[in-house]
Amino acid sequence: MYRLAITSSIALILSAALWAASSAPRPAPAPAVLTPEQQATEHYNRGLEHQQKAWDHEKKAAKAKDPQKEMAKVGSEYEKAIAAQREATRLNPKFHEAFSSLGYALPKTGDYPGALKGYDAALALQPEYAEAVEYRGEAYLGLNRVEEAQQAYEWLFLHDPTKAAALLAAFKEWGSRAAGVEPAKVDAVGAWVAQKEAAAQEMSGTRETGKKEW
Predict the structure, then answer these.
(1) Domain boundary, last residue among 127, 159, 183
(2) pLDDT of 44-86, one tens digit each?
(3) How many domains does the chain fold into?
(4) Percentage of the residues of the chain whose pLDDT score is greater than 70
(5) 21 within domain boundaries
(6) Domain that holds residue 178
(7) Rg (CA), the chain
(8) 107 and 180 together in one domain
(9) Are residues 113 and 150 in the same domain?
(10) Distances in Å between the alpha carbon of 19 and those of 11, 24, 27, 190?
């Protein structure tokens, strides 16, 4: 009887210990270790989020009575986007989209030469990345390097008509605010833009009718 009582007591103690162990909070699993490429993607996406916020502030500034406050936020968001994309390209030197997004954000802070380096890096990795071709064309315009911007348009005209149209619109904007450029050159670019618009309309018409495909 005494031995049975001891055995029962031991069983109760073991049961209590097992219950306590099962009900005790379990340690959280260790966080997964991200590869440099995965970390780069996180920074890239964060940069795009800051870029979107900059766009939102630009829209608000266009409607605001005093746009300076919103425009200050625009600059801040682009600075954050630049930092994020720089880190993305550091972690993954083959990340052509991040180089292109870096190139997009840099001229928003006035750094056109830096933007060209970003686009050059993106296109060295992916030569037919149309987005980088188009935005590099805009950066060329920001530096009044018109001939190189025209070459970008010619490539886009054959490979991505939508982005070609966006770059042509940038030519129009450049013509209305070109500083330090001879009026004759501005006029020549205006005539070139009109010629390209007519060619684009003709191409669009032939595609719709199916009579001719360039």
Answers:
(1) 127
(2) 999 999 999 999 999 999 998 888 988 999 999 999 999 999 9
(3) 2
(4) 81
(5) no
(6) 130-196
(7) 30
(8) no
(9) no
(10) 12, 8, 17, 83
Instruction: Look up the CATH number of the domain holding residue 63.
Output: 1.25.40.10
Inter-CA distances, 129 with 121, 137, 161, 171, Å: 11, 13, 14, 20
Q: Tell me how far apart the alpha carbons of residues 10 and 207 are, in angstroms, rounded to a whole number.
A: 88
Q: Is residue 158 part of a domain?
A: yes
Tokens read off for 79: 């600075």
Q: Are residues 168 and 153 in the same domain?
A: yes
Q: Secondary structure of the chain in the HEC alphabet?
A: CHHHHHHHHHHHHHHHHHHHHHHCCCCCCCCCCCCHHHHHHHHHHHHHHHHHHHHHHHHHHHHCCCCHHHHHHHHHHHHHHHHHHHHHHHHCCCCHHHHHHHHHHHHHHCCHHHHHHHHHHHHHHCCCCHHHHHHHHHHHHHCCCHHHHHHHHHHHHHHCHHHHHHHHHHHHHHHHHCCCCCHHHHHHHHHHHHHHHHHHHHHHHHHHHCCCCC
- Measured in whole angstroms, the distance separating CA 140 from the mean position of its chain's CA atoms is 18
Q: State the pTM of this model.
A: 0.78
For 126-164, write each residue's pLDDT tens digit: 999 999 999 999 999 999 999 999 999 999 999 999 999
- At residue 56's C-alpha, the angle toward residues 50 and 60, to 5°, is 140
How many CA within 13 A on the CB side of residue 200? 22
Last residue of a domain, one of 74, 100, 127: 127
